[in-house]
Amino acid sequence: MGGIEFLKGHGTQNDFVLLPDPDGRLELTEARVAALCDRQRGLGADGVLRIVRSAAVGVESAGEWFMDYRNADGSIAEMCGNGVRVFVRHLVDSGLVSEREFVIGTRAGDRPVQMHADGSVTVQMGPATITGTSVTVVAGQPFSGVAVNVGNPHLVSVVEDDVDELDLRDQPDFDSDVFPEGVNLEFINLLGDNALKMRVHERGVGETRSCGTGTVAAVAAALHLAGTDTGEATVDIPGGQVIVGIRRGGSTLTGPAEIVARGELDETWWAGLGS
Ligand SMILES: N[C@H](CCC[C@H](N)C(=O)O)C(=O)O
């Protein structure tokens, strides 16, 4: 068997290691994911995207390809909005898919995608469902938030001060009765005329420069607080800007996707991490 191919890519600087594994042969253990994502002992990333045929993982999907997403700590999450865009960029650039509009399988369900001429990607992200309210505590300061499910769990807090002032180095406290599986925590400033500014502390990762599902949750929460469930907004995150659309029963995320590099993992290193 040749070396284990990988690629490195990002969507608004939420970065990923991509592992082409069409037949699902790689033993992708938590230890291997955590090592790959470690920025000193591995390649460094916020998550891993394994590219595997839906049939190879026994998933019923309209899409030939399934995105097997893992967080940097090795945990599995239902969906990754920035990751899907990078996943799509690779499938198209590599010629594995010849169309520009197709469907991707994910743990949150099938997601129709469209790659645009400029390399940006639009993802149908499914419903962004408001599920209640809760509280998070950041460096001793409590914030109330709107709970939103985008296939994965989020708590979105509107912050009066500039979100750049928040200290997100440590895991903010949250109510594990409300979020027994953990939660992605978004903090937003309302910039007016359909524009938000956001920072995020991601479940299973820590602070990231962007979180695609988080931007969808943020716009859904902002619209909900304004008394509606339909609208569009730009979201400025530290890693760039995306456009989010919310409608009843669905949402869209549009943003850039970059492939940075490709290479081979050292097989002795990989084997040494234990299968
Ligand atoms: N950390 C998230 C998954 C990755 C989400 C984020 N990277 C995105 O772009 O949506 C979770 O555990 O639900």
How would you explain this protein's 3D organization?
There is one protein chain. By secondary structure, the protein is mainly beta. It folds into 2 domains: 133 residues, Diaminopimelate Epimerase, Chain A, domain 1; 127 residues, Diaminopimelate Epimerase, Chain A, domain 1. The chain has an 18-stranded mixed sheet that branches. 2,6-diaminopimelic acid (API) binds next to helix 2 and helix 3. Homodimer. Its EC number is 5.1.1.7. Pathway: Amino-acid biosynthesis; L-lysine biosynthesis via DAP pathway; DL-2,6-diaminopimelate from LL-2,6-diaminopimelate: step 1/1.
Q: Tell me, what's the shape?
A: globular
**Biggest sheet character:** 18 strands, mixed
- Tally the helices: 4
Per CATH, the class of the largest domain reads Alpha Beta
| Order of helix and strand elements from N to C terminus | EEHEEHEEEEEEEEEEHEEEEH
How many domains?
2
Query: Could you say what the CATH architecture of the largest domain is?
Result: Roll
Task: Please count the beta strands (DSSP E, at least 2 residues each).
Answer: 18
Low-confidence stretches: none
At CATH level 3, the topology of the largest domain is Diaminopimelate Epimerase, Chain A, domain 1
Structural class: mainly beta
